[in-house]
Write a structure and sequence with these properties.
This protein has 200 residues and is mainly beta. 10% of the residues lie in helices and 39% in strands. The protein has helices at residues 2-16, 23-27; strands at residues 47-49, 62-67, 69-72, 77-85, 92-99, 104-110, 122-123, 131-137, 150-159, 166-172, 179-181, 187-193, 195-199. It is elongated and about 50 Å long.
Length: 200
């Protein structure tokens, strides 16, 4: 019973920190699949640029989320893989995903790499304003661990920007505050690397 109460409480804390998402936007989170879609990242990327060999060190008590870089042409759809490092015994994770809505149009998310992660984990009511809300928690309350560089999900966009533009996709704390719950319900920091789409 205590475990169930903790799950509900944790979910409510995360959901109530979302400023601007509708009930329908976050309600789908309770309908997430019990098993992850562990399919490999889509090969539909137009051209993918390497994240870089000199990755920053992850601070103690933090996880790292990296968004990859890619190349595309105006009008094309391109997907960016979002990967994690130091993702050890994580119970819950939430953050905002930010981009310029004049340059990019959000299409979908896929290639889910966490148990229970689904389209319902992404709040899209403000996608036309350049932000998405991401919310995930471990329904088993045991903590999930994935190897470094594992893909958590893919973000797919239609490129609206003209040739020569650089379109950034970043992890942020507005409108949905960044929260990471680790082992023993400890609060961890979230460090991130933005991704960019270079328009050819």
């Amino acid at each position: 019973m205590n475990t169930y109460i903790w799950i509900v409480s944790f979910a409510l804390v995360l959901l109530t920190s979302c400023t601007g998402g509708s009930k329908a936007d976050v309600g789908n989170n309770t309908k997430m699949n019990k098993q992850a879609n562990t399919a490999k990242p889509s090969k539909q990327h137009i051209k993918t640029a390497p994240i870089g060999l000199n990755k920053p060190k992850v601070a103690t008590g933090a996880i790292q989320i990296d968004i990859e870089d890619a190349y595309a042409k105006k009008g094309e759809e391109v997907c960016l893989s979002v990967s994690a490092r130091s993702f050890t015994s994580i119970l819950g994770l939430q953050h905002s995903i930010l981009f310029d809505q004049k340059q990019l149009k959000y299409k979908t998310s896929k290639s889910f790499g966490l148990p229970g992660l689904s389209l319902g984990s992404f709040g899209t009511t403000k996608a036309d304003q350049g932000s998405l809300n991401f919310l995930w928690f471990d329904m088993n309350v045991k903590g999930v661990t994935v190897p470094d560089a594992s893909v958590l999900y893919d973000l797919c966009f239609e490129v609206l920007a003209k040739k020569g533009s650089t379109c950034k996709v970043t992890i942020g704390d507005k409108p949905l505050k960044m929260e990471v719950v680790g082992p023993n319900k400890s609060k961890l920091n979230l460090e991130s690397k933005s991704g960019k789409i270079s328009v050819q």
